[in-house]
Input
Amino acid sequence: MVIAVLAVQGAFAEHEHMLEKLGISYVELRKKDDLYQKYDGIILPGGESTVQGKLLKELDMYDTIHGQIQQGMPVLATCAGLILLADSVENDDREYFKTLPVTVKRNAYGRQLGSFHTKQELKGIGIVPMTFIRAPYITGVNEGVDILAKENGHIVAVRYKNQLAMSFHPELDDDERIHKYFAEIVREHAKQ
Ligand code: GLN
Output
């Protein structure tokens, strides 16, 4: 099993470090040619969704990754990655993959509470640490979306088919369970 990490901008190295700790092979997606390697799942890291979205289009990577996700390739999306997957962004007109039927609000915690740390229950895993950095949260979900976690009443983690998306940064905490959970989804999908 090989997991691809989108590495055009943002916190991709931290995801790679987590995969190394778990002994999972990975490749980086930095340019179009990288998309023709063999991999079984994709991680969309945090960072700046507007920059990532722009680079994906400029580097001509957007359509191929979009197609892979539409065809069911498992994705773990964190923070900016969640914004890239969302069907709609309530406070931004830019549109990206739109494969995850949720509405998100960018920078939803405002300036004062831009970054914080907490612990909450994540369905199927237990209490997990959550680090939020200028995070979005989910303001609406459509049919088929499983809500996995809430923080202060706001939806911060969901699963829809093979797409696992969250507002916070599991790669920044010393807890590997979310990456393990994702690796299980990838392993199951690779078997089919
Ligand atoms: N605020 C960023 C955005 O809107 C997301 C922040 C993050 O990924 N840590 O894209």
In short: The two ends are 13 Å apart (CA to CA). The helical segments are 12-21, 49-58, 62-70, 80-85, 177-191. The chain has a mean pLDDT of 97.
